[in-house]
Design goal:
262 residues; mainly alpha
């Protein structure tokens, strides 16, 4: 009887353990579903940022992908910025050079305007007539126009390069933010999925062990119940034998009594 009770308690405990594990596994499966959804949203956000940055970088003959993000931020972008800065410096030098040239030509033009016929030409340093002075003035005016056109183009180039550098700096900030997002939110979301999957796998293993333990406990209970049935049958047989013996004793006593009366 004691063995049977212990076997029943073992089955009850095993069933409780299995039920609790099944409930916990259900909760973990819900957690895993939510974690995977969060991870997918983070991955889509990361890929969206990369696609936008790749499109913006194409204007600088650069591209980017998940595998090249670090290289682009640390190597390609600084190299492109250095290239643009060098071009801007060259353009700025050209602007300064053209400004100086225009100023020099304007001074020479003023000298020619102040030069009268028969005077010494400031350009060729010879005595000149009116026609020569006019030719010199037209030549200088034409060169001033050419240099001013070049100066305007050089200034426009400086402004263009300055804008490109500003745009490149903005892109770099967004690239750094994108990398931080990958190393922060995305990595955390992926780690959360891995953690839940690991915990779920552990609990599924525990459930297999618990179900095996339940099966063993049920087997032990069946054996205990069979033993109880066997003992009850044996006890019943013993009781029947006792009754039979008692009946015979009673019959013997009755026969002795009858004999005594005779």
């Amino acid at each position: 009887e004691d063995d049977h009770e212990e076997a029943q308690e073992a089955v009850d405990d095993a069933e409780t353990n299995v039920r609790e594990l099944e409930e916990r596994i259900g909760e973990l499966e819900d957690d895993l579903s939510a974690a995977r959804e969060d991870c997918e949203e983070a991955r889509e956000e990361f890929e969206s940022r990369l696609a936008d940055l790749d499109e913006r970088l194409s204007a600088f003959d650069l591209d980017i992908g998940a595998e090249t993000l670090d290289t682009t931020v640390d190597d390609d972008l600084p190299a492109k910025r250095a290239e643009l800065q060098s071009d801007k410096d060259d353009a700025s030098d050209r602007v300064a050079e053209l400004k100086t040239r225009v100023e020099s030509l304007e001074e020479k033009r003023e000298e020619l305007l102040d030069t009268d016929e028969g005077a010494i030409c400031p350009s060729c340093r010879q005595e000149v007539d009116a026609e020569h002075l006019e030719d010199e003035r037209e030549t200088i005016e034409a060169e001033i126009d050419d240099r001013e056109t070049e100066l305007a183009e050089a200034k426009a180039r400086v402004d263009e390069l300055d804008e490109q550098l500003s745009t490149l700096n903005e892109i770099r900030e967004d690239l750094v933010d994108c990398r931080s997002f990958r190393e922060g939110d995305l990595d955390a979301a992926e780690q959360a999925v891995e953690d839940v999957e690991s915990t779920l796998s552990d609990h599924q293993g525990d459930l297999e062990d618990a179900e095996a333990a339940l099966s063993e406990a049920e087997t032990a209970l069946s054996e205990a119940e069979a033993e109880v049935d066997r003992l009850e049958d044996k006890l019943e047989g013993a009781a029947w034998a006792v009754e039979e013996l008692e009946s015979r004793v009673a019959d013997g006593e009755a026969a002795d009594g009858a004999y005594d009366e005779v």
